[in-house]
Design brief:
Layout (H helix, E strand, L loop, with lengths): L1 E8 L7 E4 L4 E5 L6 H13 L18 E10 L2 E10 L5 E4 L2 E2 L3 H4 L5 E4 L4 H5 L2 H15 L3 H23 L7 H38 L3 E6 L10 H14 L1 H7 L10 E6 L2 E2 H4 L2 H23 L4 E5 L7 H10 L5 E5 L9 E6 L2 E4 L1
Parallel strand pairs: 3-13, 3-14, 8-12, 12-13
Antiparallel strand pairs: 1-2, 1-4, 4-5, 5-6, 6-7, 9-10, 10-11, 14-15
This protein binds adenosine-5'-triphosphate and magnesium ion.
Magnesium ion binds next to helix 1.
Length: 362
């Protein structure tokens, strides 16, 4: 698939305009703070329903205005598809596909497949477990239809269970807890089994990429909450999770939060035998992040049977010549959007200059 045309109105600093892209590598260049990342953000918004920079939807509205609107025409095997995203201050967002309103973000997830690379990806490698969980959840929710729904159910039950812990501490009977635990275990096990399978897939891919790029070995260790080396059997996972919940009840009551479950999980990326989070150099971590994204791309392509679109925000300048060459070779045949401060040293199929929110095709 590829994005043929984009229309933006009141989106961040971008001027109201229609932009036509080419099928291959689209390069956007311009000085700092001109709107390059904003442009990629608007495309990614149509793909995931939210900002890749973690901004709230209301922050995407141009300063001083009270709404924004973004529309794209996506080409898919000669079929054109229209995706629209509108948001007015203090109102609900309106998302439409081919003119039909869709009810939830999960419905949007199967419409436009993108993978984004940005310097912040380094956080997935460097920072705490919540960054990796968030990343994992967002990748899986695109390829597994019910994943986001199950995750939302799990989180809802978790909040209620934590509230219940408080009332139990205040003297209410424990008996009702079992109902919550059974529900939590049901959704929790679904999440764990899918995470296990996705991470196995990541491992196969990341091994290959890292070997090719830097001749290093890679391994993924899923630190699941049930302490299983292989958490792919749902019934076993359910049983183990239930046992863990029962075992931890005193701690749960002490801290008034649930100590075990998918909301506490993590995964490790082991490079040449060592945890990359702890031991890798900055450059190595950058390579690992890159390989992780390439794996995401491969899995997305395989699972959906579609060609995803690559969004590379400011990453080219940070890579050495070999890595740059490796990525550009792999991206042949896919639509790619690359932002860069200069036009030099990047070979693209079409170029756009961005200046003060205006995008001009050359
Ligand atoms: P860099 O090369 O530094 O990454 P960039 O071209 O990617 O720059 P953007 O992140 O796209 O820059 O931001 C462009 C400008 O948009 C910035 O000056 C930013 O302050 C501004 N901006 C951000 N949010 C809004 C908004 N809601 N309304 C208007 N302008 C905004
Ligand atoms: Mg930028």
């Amino acid at each position: 698939m590829y994005v043929k045309e984009l229309f933006v109105d009141n989106f961040r600093n971008l001027q109201k305009q229609k932009i036509e892209f080419c099928k291959g590598i689209n390069i956007f260049y311009g000085l700092n703070a001109q709107g390059k990342s904003n442009l990629l953000e608007s495309i990614r918004l149509l793909s995931m329903g939210r900002s890749f920079r973690g901004s709230k939807t209301t922050e995407l509205i141009k300063f001083g205005e009270d709404y924004f609107y973004v529309k794209a025409i996506i080409c898919q095997e000669n079929n054109d598809k229209k995706i629209e995203f509108g948001y007015k201050k203090n109102e609900n967002k309106v998302i439409k596909v081919n003119g039909n309103k869709i009810k939830s973000t999960s419905e949007l997830l199967g419409q436009l497949f993108t993978v984004i690379f940005s310097p912040e990806d380094l956080n997935i490698i460097k920072e705490g477990p919540s960054y990796r969980r968030k990343y994992l959840d967002s990748c899986i929710s695109v390829v597994e239809k019910n994943y986001l729904y199950n995750l939302m159910q799990y989180n809802r039950i978790l909040i209620n269970r934590n509230k219940l812990l408080k009332t139990i501490k205040e003297g209410k009977s424990r008996s009702i807890l079992e109902v919550f635990d059974d529900q939590l275990v049901e959704y929790g096990a679904k999440i764990i089994v899918v995470r296990q399978s996705y991470l196995k897939n990541v491992e196969i891919n990341i091994k290959k990429f890292l070997l090719e790029i830097s001749n290093e070995t890679a391994e993924i260790v899923y630190l699941n909450s049930v302490g299983l080396k292989d958490a792919s059997d749902k019934e076993i996972v359910k049983k183990r999770l239930k046992e863990k919940l029962l075992k931890n009840i005193d701690l749960d009551l002490k801290y008034l939060t649930t100590q075990v479950g998918p909301h506490r999980e993590d995964f490790k990326i082991i490079i040449n035998g060592y945890d990359s989070r702890v031991y890798s150099s900055q450059g190595q971590q950058r390579t690992v992040a890159l390989c992780l994204k390439l794996s995401e791309f491969e899995i997305l392509k395989k699972e959906t049977g579609e060609k995803p679109i690559l969004l590379l925000d400011d990453v080219m300048s940070e890579l050495d010549e070999n890595r740059k060459k490796y990525i550009l070779e792999r991206l042949q045949g896919f639509q790619t959007f690359i932002t860069h401060t200069t036009k030099r040293d990047l070979k693209g199929d079409c170029y756009f200059k961005i200046s003060n929110g205006v995008v001009i095709k050359e």
